[in-house]
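agent> call fold_tool(seq_1)
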Amino acid sequence: MTRTRHAVALASGGVDSSTAMAIAIKQGFYVHALSFDYGQRHRCELEAAAKVVHSLGIEDHVITPIDLRAFGGSALTDDIDVPKNRDIARISAGIPVTYVPARNTIFLSFALGWCEILRAQDIFIGVNAVDYSGYPDCRPEFIQAYEHLANLATKAGVEGSARYTIHAPLLHMSKADIIRAGNEAGVDFAVTHSCYDPSPEGLACGACDSCILRRKGFEEAGIPDPARYGS
């Protein structure tokens, strides 16, 4: 297949972003993958992102450093304990301390800048408004507002030479549906990483919100979870 449409896809190494990238490829886009070394405590996700990108046959992968630890304010970028062993009702109630302030706004801004350079008009992001752990920047209202912003804040958008689209193909899927879609699109889930608080060896804790949602998703999808858990 000749891929003439280019897209930037955010690649975290997790189930959702990996599935979104695979869907972009399936839709015929030539994908440029973008990851961030932002000071996250689960930095081993970057190794997973590189493995996912390679497994999907993506040739262009940029890992950009941003020091969000300079601000902190999140269990992922500060000395704050990651919540463990919460039930689904508690996970879905309110915004958890694993929320990184303005993270998706920042990430999409970098993706938009790269799109301008590439003369691409499409950005893929694996946000989800169903099993989304309460993050405000994973809601459809956010995606719609950012797409509007993208077309106001860019040279190509103002001049009318581009119409930017933020693709969030997983937005209204359950985690089980995402896993099924990723499996169908060829994602190798064995190289993905979801845990917020992995061991020094990279083993998933099995108890943080992300691990719980991942395990629940694989169980409901009827697909074995290939992640390596420490407990």
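agent> call fold_tool(seq_2)
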Amino acid sequence: MLGFLKGKKIGIDLGTTYTNVYVSGKGVVLSEPTVVAVNTTTKAIEAIGAEAKEMVGKTHEAISVIRPMQDGAIANYQFTHAMLKHFISHALGRGALFKPDVLVSVPSGITGTERRAVVEATIKAGAKNAFIVKEPILAAIGAGVPINEPRGHMIIDAGGGTTDVAVISLGGVVASTSVKCAGNKLDQALREYIRRVYGVAIGDQAAEELKKTLASALPVHPDAKGSVKGRDQATGLPKTLELTTNELVKAISYELDVIVKAIKKVLEETPPELASDIIDNGIVMTGGTSLLTNLPELIKKESGVTVRRADNALMAVADGTGILLDHLDTYKRSILAKR
């Protein structure tokens, strides 16, 4: 049984933007930004997670705030290891006697080298065994999709660094793709649009808030208005801008088109019998980027297939790790690698 039924079991949704940790028997016990603050002089880690994110754009030159995960892959092994060790330790609490078995989510397009890096970092961080499973499988399980039945189900997991699209049947992935275009690229597009059109620089957190509160995947009627604060690049002085939803629709249209094309690609590669099932079942969306206003409606418009956002969209992958850990026999075909 893969040695998976004894001791503590932890599921980690290791995201580019956020990391969620599930402990068997307790549920999701930790949800923290995937961020590390480092002293550039001493190389010591000053903060991890929420505390580190609070420092973004506000630190002096001796402190650098780093995202150790980029586009769903490890960009900095040392800091990813330190972050995982911190999260695992906090999830277990004091007095833990045994190393836990840890299951980690990874994008569907991960390479063999990237997969090994995740496993090695997890083992080094304190895991007894490290298992990895592709995010669409976990997202589907967490969203309540019956992936083991002989019917086709399409899942779109749109997170911070990647958007994973997969068609699943009989517990396995039939067709899939992963594009490095998701929430972070939308934030970047908003920052660049405001800099180019208005000559104003805004920070990462301001762009993220703008995406959540004003941006939309489709035009709205009547148009909505909002504001954002930044720095005028000509004068160097603070400035408040008034923006509208429909101008932001245009600002992020290219990035959304990349996501739509990925979805169409997977639909084109899906066998006709399963494509028929998808028409009947619809498409399920998970991940933080799925919360973008009117994104399901845009995908329905472009694909012709009904799209619904999972009720637990933000935590679907983390919930999926927990369900898989607790029902390994049912989902054993979903285990892709082990060390």
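agent> summarizing second result for user.
The chain has three domains: 9-138+316-338, 149-181+256-311, 183-253. Confidence is low (pLDDT under 50) at residues 1-5.
agent> awaiting next instruction.
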